[in-house]
Amino acid sequence: MPTGWERQRLPQEKPNKNQETIPNQTNKVFSSAETEISRMEIFVPEDPKRCLKDLILPSSVRERLQAALNRIRFHDVLYHQWNLKSVDPHGARTAINLFGLPGTGKTFCAEAIADYLGKKIIKVNYAEIESKYVGETPKNITAAFKKAKETKSVLFFDEADSILGKRLTNVTQSADHGVNVSRSVMLLQLDNFDGEVIFASNLAKNYDGAFVRRILAHIEFELPDRECRVKLWNYLLAKEIPTAEDVNLEWLADESNGLSGGDILNVVIAAASRAVQRTGNSQKVLRSDLAEEIHWVRVASTLDHSTEQQPEKNTQNL
């Protein structure tokens, strides 16, 4: 065959096996990489909107929080000068569990910790990582940790009891096996992660013991005491909101005993919404507005309990 000529394959000729498999393997690799990148894009680092100076907590809770932050702030002293690394070789990981009643400031605190550390925060809830397809949830968990590591972000798992729950001992179907696999992957990722992980839950008693042992600090968020309620009203009742002369922080603190910070925020918004429809000098928040909304918050807090106490209806004869 003369130099420079190329043999042209006729249409009926088939490519050899080597020519056929190489592009398929390449496409498979690209497809896998694209899927991983797409999975990681679910988890978006955000700038924290809260800071520690605005976090209103009882003194006992704040002390426990500060102790946990000292573990990060004085890491070199604790693990190198005081040689804690000899007994805790995984000392680079910091996992904090915030638990307690809804509305007591757990999410606020997670953002404030990220701000304190000068980092972004990746917020993860169960719906974002849970998948109806077997095997997908563990991959989502892995992607969340990988994104946090690459971006040096604080990883925050809300409703963590859904993720850190007890492993199932009586596995009867593939879904049960999937739950246990997800728990195992979470344990592995925690062990290999050198950053900060924050968990928040209203039901921390449901945690698997293996997770409890891997968490540095467990901080219970209590309902605010009177001193905290005064500070909460002062913070949440914005100065720009016009109020009647007899509305003062001391009265509000006494009236809102037993309410959480989230409850107080809802009262402020609802009371202001009542007042804004008025005109002239009457366009202000009255004591009656606040008292009425506090009442309805209390009523709402009893709805779940009253529902649980109702006996089930016998539908057999219906």
N-end to C-end Cα span: 92 Å
Shape: globular
Radius of gyration: 28 Å
Please list the strands of the largest sheet in the order they lie side by side: 2-3-4-1-5
Could you name the CATH homologous superfamily of the largest domain?
Answer: P-loop containing nucleotide triphosphate hydrolases
Can you summarize the main beta sheet?
5 strands, parallel
Helices, by number, come to 12
What is the level-2 CATH architecture name of the largest domain?
A: 3-Layer(aba) Sandwich
Percent strand equals: 5-15%
SSE ordering: HHHEHEHHEHEHEHHHH
In total, how many beta strands? Answer: 5
In total, the number of domains comes to 2
Return the average pLDDT rounded to an integer: 84
The first-level CATH class of the largest domain is given as: Alpha Beta
Share of helical residues: 40-55%
Poorly predicted segments: 19-23, 306-318
CATH topology of the largest domain: Rossmann fold
Which structural category fits the helices and strands? alpha/beta
Describe this protein's structure.
The protein has two domains: 170 residues, Rossmann fold (3-Layer(aba) Sandwich); 76 residues, Helicase, Ruva Protein, domain 3, CATH 1.10.8.60. It is built from twelve helices and five strands. A five-stranded parallel beta sheet has the order 2-3-4-1-5, with helices on both faces. The radius of gyration is 28 Å and the shape is globular. The C terminus is likely disordered. The protein is α/β, with parallel strands linked by helices and 318 residues long. It is 50% helix and 8% strand. Helix 7 links the parallel strand 3 and strand 4.
